[in-house]
């Protein structure tokens, strides 16, 4: 294992930021720490980095007991959301910085910087100042700088958080490809489930200072450990006494066994999808169903129509903590 976190606890005054965190992250893996704001992701990342100390528990990096090692001795590279570059140094010098303070030979530094700038597709920008780069280019420079010292682990705290949606998307594809090339063990913090699902080999869901679940994107999506994980990894809607994904509901225009009858209150076309809101008797919140436009057209769905809803075969469903359907209400049409 590259990173082993055992029994880590952290409080700020009375506030419990992390509670009994245990994690083993294999060498070469790209792991996302995913969770809502304030859940403890950054605190955990900072404890792994050595920027913060745990109240109890241990951190082992590449087999080395690191709990009390200062940050400089952990051989970790970081990138934060707002990357602090040296404004007066060129892109190349920024990337070279970690190597220069380690007094590496000039020729070695030059070769390494060229290699890294090529890796992050900034070859043409070596002589620019950071202020002459776009936000996305600056974050790529930050990654090159973090990689320059050949860290055993790379820690990224919302590295693309400050960028607009399109650039974020490009950079996340790029990060995945970069990781496939360099295979450095990487942990990145995000509160964006799509980002985690698209990029990570494994996702650690962190909420209220605890790990809710660890698993591959597929595992988490298909077999969420609880209602929280299910809700955090994608949209969820209530149908009777279960909660499930809106695209996991089958819609019929005639009564079917076990189906709940409802009335379409709204039909919204978003790109290639149609989102259908269905009011079901006795259920407070409408059921949301998502389907393709073609499917909705084939069924001839329109607002005001009566439909019958049933979980699709093989749908992932968890029991509702508060059943959406009041007891004693008629369920089937
Ligand atoms: N130095 C500190 N002093 C007091 N409380 C802190 C400190 N650092 C963090 N916290 C608290 O610990 C909790 C966890 O914070 P943390 O930054 O780890 O969350 P997060 O999951 O990374 O959230 P975000 O996505 O918003 O960055 C928060 O409630 C935060 O207010």
TrEMBL record:
Domain ABC transporter: 3-233
A Pfam family reported for this protein in Swiss-Prot or TrEMBL: ABC_tran
One cellular component (GO) term of this entry: ATP-binding cassette (ABC) transporter complex
Entry annotated with the keyword Nucleotide-binding: yes
InterPro entries xrefs: AAA+_ATPase, ABC_SmlMolc_Importer, ABC_transporter-like_ATP-bd, ABC_transporter-like_CS, Mo/tungstate-bd_C_term_dom, P-loop_NTPase, Sulph_transpt1, TOBE-like
Keyword match Nucleotide-binding: yes
Top-rank EC class of the record's enzyme: translocase
Signal peptide: none
E.C. designation(s): 7.6.2.9
Keyword terms: ATP-binding, Cell membrane, Membrane, Nucleotide-binding, Sulfate transport, Translocase, Transport
Domain of life (superkingdom): Bacteria
Name of this chain's protein: ABC-type quaternary amine transporter
Organism: Nocardioides marmotae
Gene: cysA
């Amino acid at each position: 294992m590259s990173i082993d976190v055992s029994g880590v606890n952290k409080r700020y005054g009375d506030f419990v930021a992390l509670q009994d965190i245990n994690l083993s992250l294999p060498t070469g893996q790209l792991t996302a720490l995913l969770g809502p704001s304030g859940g403890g992701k950054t605190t955990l990342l900072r404890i792994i980095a050595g920027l913060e100390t745990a109240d109890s528990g241990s951190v082992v990096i590449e087999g080395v007991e690191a709990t009390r090692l200062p940050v400089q001795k952990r051989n970790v590279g970081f990138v934060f959301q707002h990357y602090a570059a040296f404004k007066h140094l060129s892109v190349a010098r920024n990337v070279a910085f970690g190597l220069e303070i380690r007094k590496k030979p000039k020729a070695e530094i030059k070769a390494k910087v060229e290699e890294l700038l090529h890796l992050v597709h900034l070859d043409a920008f070596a002589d620019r100042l950071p202020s002459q780069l776009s936000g996305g280019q600056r974050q790529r420079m930050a990654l090159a700088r973090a990689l320059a010292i050949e860290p055993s682990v790379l820690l990224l705290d919302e590295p693309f958080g400050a960028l607009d949606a399109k650039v974020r998307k490009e950079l996340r594809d790029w990060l995945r490809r970069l990781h496939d090339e360099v295979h450095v063990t990487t942990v990145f913090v995000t509160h964006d489930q799509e980002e985690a699902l698209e990029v990570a080999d494994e996702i650690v869901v962190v909420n209220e200072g605890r790990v809710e679940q660890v698993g591959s994107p597929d595992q988490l999506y298909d077999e969420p450990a609880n209602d929280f994980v299910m809700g955090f990894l994608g949209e969820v809607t209530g149908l009777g006494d279960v909660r499930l994904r809106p695209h996991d509901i089958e819609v019929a225009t005639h009564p079917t066994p076990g189906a709940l009858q409802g009335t379409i209150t709204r039909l919204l076309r978003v790109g290639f999808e149609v989102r259908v809101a269905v009011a079901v008797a006795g259920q407070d919140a409408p059921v949301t169903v998502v389907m393709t436009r073609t499917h909705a057209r084939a069924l001839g769905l329109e607002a005001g129509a009566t439909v019958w809803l049933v979980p699709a075969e093989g749908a992932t469903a968890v029991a509702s903590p508060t059943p959406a359907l009041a007891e004693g209400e008629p369920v089937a049409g």
